[in-house]
Amino acid sequence: MQISIIIPTLNEESNICELLSQLLRIKDDRIVEIIVADGGSTDKTCNLAKKYPIKILDLGTKSRAFQMNEAAKVSIGDVLYFIHADTRPPISFVDDIHAAIKEGYQIGSYSFKLDSTDFKLRVLSMMTKINMLISRGGDQTLFVNRSFFDTLNGYDEEYVIMEDFDFIRRARKKTKFRLLDKSVIVSARKYEKNSYLTVQRANLSAFLMFYFGASPQKIKDMYNRTLSL
Length: 229
Description:
Layout: E1 3-9, H1 16-25, E2 31-38, H2 45-49, E3 55-58, H3 64-74, E4 79-82, E5 87-88, H4 93-102, E6 107-114, H5 119-127, E7 142-145, H6 146-151, H7 163-172, E8 178-186, H8 189-193, H9 196-211, H10 216-226
Parallel strand pairs: 1-2, 1-4, 2-3, 6-8
Antiparallel strand pairs: 4-7, 5-8, 6-7
Helix pairs in contact: 9-10
């Protein structure tokens, strides 16, 4: 098993160095590359990433689905592992993914813990341990067998939001989804700019609109109107 780590970024200068430093401290030959796929950052994200021995795609297009697909096209691993810049996977992630692949799973993710002691956010984190589509999301990281990724034709670039939900929904129609036993740590920054209820209202509305077939652009417009990002 060879893992290509793919990190889609947009203005992540406050997060990218910590994540890359953590990943590069893991000395494991099964990690064959780390690819940062940038969507046109106007801050120092790309300049900071260039200090590390990784691949950088300066794509200039703000679309996470497009960014991840473009990185997948140039990747060399037989397993793709997608990580958001404000997420910190457990140090055991290579072994965890390897074990899941050996068990026959082609795709899966972790649950998450938000980096906050707020009780409401701790309860929210616990809900991501439920293996249902509504409890999933790209911030939990996602591993997928490369051949299976290609079978699904990658991410649907029509999805300017909810691209991870669409991908997982399509995947679950073809194979079992492995929810790994551990959790990633995710920044609670969204809750620092918005109230808990506002974020939950936006998330639930986005999922329901997605579930009932609203256009991705309408979902994105609603989400941007509701939240300060």
